[in-house]
Amino acid sequence: MLNLTLKIFSLALFTSLVVMWVFDKYDNGYVDTYYKKIIGTGNSMIIGESRGSQGLIPEVIMKGLEYQGPMLNFAFTGNNSPYGEIYYKLIEQKLNKKLKNGLFILTIDPCCIINDKNSELKEKQLFLGKQIGVTGNPNYEYILRNYSPLYNLILSDNSESSNCITHENGWLEITMSEDSASAVARKQKRYKEEYELLSNSEMSEYRLQWLEKTIQLLKPHGKVVVVRLPAWKSMIDLENQMFPSINDEVGGVCKKEKVQYLNFYDLNTHYETTDGHHLKNQESIRFSKELNHLLLSMQ
Amino acid sequence: MVFNSLQYFIFFPSVAILYFIIPVKQRWKLLLLASIIFYLSFDPKFFALVLFSILSSFYCGLKSDETTDKSKKKLFLYLSIWSNILVLCIFKYYNFFAESAQGLLNVLGLDVSPYLLNIGFPIGISFYTFQIIGYSLDVYYGKCKAEKTLGIYSLYILYFPKLQEGPIEKTKNLLPQLRKEHTFDYERVTSGLKLMGWGLFKKLVIADRLAEFVNFYFDTQHESNGFQALIACYFFIFQLYADFSGYIDMARGASRIFGIELLKNFNHPLFSISLTDFWKKWHISLYEFLYQYVYNPLVFNKRKWGNNKSIIFTIFITLTISGLWHGASWTFVIYGILHAIGLIVEYLLTPFREKMREKVPLFISRTLGMLLTFNFVVLTMVFFRSGSIEKTWNILKAISEIKKTEIGIYVFNNIGTSWEFPLSILFIMILLSFEYLQMKTDNYLSFHKKIPLLVRWLIYAFFILVIIFFGVLTKHEFSYAQF
Amino acid sequence: MQDIISRLTPIMRRVFNDPNIVVNNELSANDVEKWTSMTNIVFINEVEKEFGFTFHFTEIMDLENVGDLLKVIKNKTS
Predicted confidence band at B477 (pLDDT cuts at 50, 70, 90)? Predict the structure, then answer.
């Protein structure tokens, strides 16, 4: 039996080495938009949804601040990472438990704290809901779960599109065609989608509770700031109309946990978006600078 | 905890290693504990139900053995069988019966809305219920003594390699083996490992790959493309076979490691030369159960009707039960009935077929038989997979109206954009080649002993790497697990 | 027993359409191509007719091979 066990062990070791070698080669190329966030590391973090993922640039925010870097943009999308137990557990894994003076920016918009009226938590069925580990580089689990059959790793010409770049710090830089016809069409489309989404959703006590728990998790490790990013005015008006209590609800949680709630909502007219939700690249830099100045003044 | 999950990948080796470490006499207890854990990993709320099935049949078996009074024996037999059939009917067939009754009453002008259950059913219930029926009948007829140790009997029902998808074990095969003391044997354990490996290959590389095409077609609204329909229907038979036989190989391989040989459930059915031949080679344990406990007694009972009448009647009943066993839906019943009709026609045409065989070379008659049988099975499987009569009709209609442009569209969409279609064809060819080789040679693997050890183990490594890199590793439930 | 065998042989050759069948104890359905679940009941009927008795189900349900059948026939005709 020992003989067989040794043989099986050797076989397992050999095949694992081959697989790891292939993954390592692949990892030097590109996996997908989210992979760099999954394997990324950082002391400070940006948490939340796609407005945060695209609108907040770590190095710009951290400039001159006394908080411990580097900062990782660990925000995904409203569908994948609304506040809840799944996202909480992944943040907990990513968190440097020894950290004392990190900076944690939690972004808010309705999609983070609402839920479909008639269905289960949608993130359970999506990739973050199935992902167990978010540490480790390469992240074999992520690749195995999302990219089987794996022969594609060897055969595919995996390169990042120049229009959609995820930086090492997790910032997702998307460049879109800015001719006015496309821009208008995109905004109209997104507006319609947002209307449908918000009509079929309700404020989720579950998500507000997990927002609170997330804040409680991060507070001992540094400063927590909750931010509502600016967006297209019509989109904002729609959100206000469908969920008038959102600021009060979030504000209430922040007050209870004694963290600041920075609502840039009302300054929306100063920032241009690509599609009504997400800041344009230059606007992301500008906004990150504004947030940085604000944080500097608060130090 | 399905066989191709990470949990099983940890569970099984742990159980196997422990098995050979603990004292020989205690090993069956470890298997029982492992089987309970395995069962609870699915849906713990049904554990009380399977416990009821175990206790009721165990108790009735003991009581039946204790008495010589035939009527008392019959009472315990009926108690055991009918209580378990009742459980099966409630959990699996209640909604089907209720909705069918509703349909019938609606046709008669009565508007009723029956209360429907939404509770699911215990894993493996169709399999172990039949096993319990077989056991109860064997005890009644004196073919075996009732098992006196509750633990052994529980293991007989819950034994985890066969729990989810069979085989439907026979009392005389499995029960004695559970009592035996099994020691480590290098040849036997490596044989089991190889069988598990082959099963995993069939499941991950073949079945789950084909499932992408099949599910995409059957589960979305694509009935109108006839060529796509044709591909999906043919892929389905290979998917189902690779999936089901892959599971069975993993079950038998795992069990062989423990020293317990489970029944063979397939005997290269894809090469069957007639429908009668097919039913001896596909899902053998179900066929043998139905043959022994339904067909044989019934045809014997009705033999005074005359050969043809009794045979036709019995085939019809047996295959309808077979269809219904597969699922609580009219498409499964139709599947069974179609096979009944096929078998009956084949039987009635026996003189004609024998005359033709005398005139035609053997190779031609066998090939023709194989093609006819295979295509008939593919056709009936459309009912099996589609889930609705209307959908089946649409699919068959689309196939009958295939247009050349559809072939072009399909080729454009599937070949050149991805490797999956050519790989699917390649792996089907590999499957058929291996099946053919296994069929023609008794122990084709014996050649491997002539290859040097290092080369042999490199081949195993290559095989494992093929599974890792070509396997569809995202979870796909085994097809027969729904039964 | 020889008498039984000599009466059984033509029946088997006729029902299973195989003139080469040689009756021995080990012979079973696995050895005869046309001995199927369907022809089996035809065979049983013919045996009953030839030997003039009726089987009870429990007598035939366990038969594994012709040897077992010969024993049952012997019991019933003696």
Answer: very low
